[in-house]
Amino acid sequence: MFCRSKPITLQPPISQAFQPLARQPRARGQIALSAKRLGRRSVIDGLRQAGAMKALFPRAEEMLQAICINTAGGVTGGDRLSLAAEAGPGAALGLTTQAAERAYRSRDGDFGTVDSTLKVAEGAMLHWLPQELILYDGCALRRRLTVDLAADARLLMVEPVVFGRAAMGERLTDARFHDRIELRRDGRPLYHDAVRLEGDISRQLARPSIAGGAGAMAALVYVAPDAERHLEAVRAYLPETGGASLLAPDVLVLRLLAPDSHILRQHLLPVLDRLSGDTLPVSWRL
Q1: Residue 12 placed within a domain
Q2: How far apart are CA 73 and CA 85, in angstroms?
Q3: What is the mean pLDDT of the chain?
Q4: Do the beta carbons of residue 126 and residue 160 sit within 8 Å?
Q5: By the 8 A CB rule, do 101 and 135 touch?
Q6: Checking CA distances to 63, which of 15, 25, 109, 160 falls within 20 to 30 Å?
Q7: What number of CA atoms fall less than 13 Å from residue 248's CA on the CB side?
Q8: Residue 2: count of CB within 10 angstroms of its CB
């Protein structure tokens, strides 16, 4: 007796069925946050978050504190992350990160981008205190920070960057890092800073005219009526590879170079404690 069997559909070999995508999915994330004054406290006025960017709000007294989290775990080629924050009239807003951000290898050579836009209204104060950005070999990152200050607004801003993991002997022999900071007050330029490093970054940083072999750096700007009063105390916290000066009686700027992130923090933390009035976010202590 002859029986006709049902047609058999052959599955592709495992090596074909599980071929990786030609291009891996890229992270997209956005936070839009505004703060307003309510009595003695500052509270959330508006919040929108999407994709890989999230914000947490630990309990605080007068200042509204926000911890920004990149749930993608880092930035790689093709990622697009953005943050827009505004401190309304008389409000106090503090922004930080849960941990150090990491810029990983870009496998297709495309840049990852991180754009942050901050506004500080009349009589308001904003603390922009992200933890370190760690660059990995092969990374390609384009980052921009823009801050618009009202005429009497106050600001404490720091941007620490670590060039590779010194404890693991990592060197940045093929990486790209484009960074720009623009501060405006009452519509006029107040402070502009730009860094553009490509290729063998470790070799470039070894040059005496650039970084003298430093593996970490930080830029800090403090805009407040008492800036001049803090100048000498801030200078006392700095090593020979750091410097602080006044752009105006109420604008203090600082640049710090260090061999690694640990030493960078040793000198940076006392400065941040002083200028923040001992309100540095808890995540900096972990």
Answers
A1: no
A2: 22
A3: 91
A4: no
A5: no
A6: 160
A7: 11
A8: 3
Please give the model's pTM, rounded to 2 decimal places. Answer: 0.90
Domain enclosing residue 204, as ranges: 29-212
- DSSP annotation of 105 reads B
- Return d(Cα 159, Cα 217) in angstroms, integer: 8
- DSSP 8-state symbol, 268: H
Q: Does residue 113 form part of some domain?
A: yes
Q: Dump pLDDT digits (tens) for 74-125.
A: 999 999 999 999 999 999 999 999 999 999 999 888 999 999 999 999 999 9
Q: What is the pLDDT of residues 3-45, one digit of tens each?
A: 444 444 444 444 444 445 455 678 999 999 999 999 999 999 9
Task: Out of 62-66, 215-219, 279-283, pick the least confident.
Answer: 279-283
Distances (CA, A) of 213 to 100, 241, 254: 22, 11, 19
Structure token digits, residue 157? 């801003």
CB 211 within 8 A of CB 257: yes
Answer whether residue 275 is part of any domain.
no
How many domains does the chain contain in total? Answer: 1
Look at the block and give the residue holding tokens 């106050």: 154
